[in-house]
Amino acid sequence: MITSTSSYSVLGTLGDSEGFLTCSMHVAKEWDHADQIRAYPLFETAAEDLRSEKIDCLLVPAAYPHLGRFIMDRDLKAAESFIRQIPALVLGGMESVPSSSTEQVYHHPATTHLLSEIDTEYQETVGVASNSEACRRVLENPQSSVCITNQLCADYYGLSTYKILREGIRMPWICFTKMTDSRLRP
User: Fold this and answer.
1) Cβ atoms within 10 A of the Cβ of 180, count?
2) pTM, to two decimals
């Protein structure tokens, strides 16, 4: 049996009650360095629990726009980093083809850069906390909205995939732990 020298009891990352649909939960499961994986609505909420020692590892993708908050946090340290492929990022919706009257595009902030690759005209973009939330928002407004999400979420929620925006990006990930040695603090 191979045992990791970097095992964690409880790892926290972005996720929700649907299981391992967010890229973060999916990668945490594949990485297999924690006894338990806990889903959080925001990375910042998981960081609070790391500071208060309710979890002992916070997993964040390098694409997260606010990654610097954790890197510069005096109570946290980047303990490990690795690269894992994420599921395809897609444009999805409930109709068989995108509506010509698309009002909203729901997306996680990490995918903002992909908005320029959408051929469908739309009125506004709406940032959401996760890929799962983007799909749920489309279900609430199926005739006039689309989302950028991962293929796992699109399939789970029964969305049509209109376009594959990125196929299996190899994403850097950082595992943060609590700073324990006061001599290492700035």
Assistant:
1) 10
2) 0.80
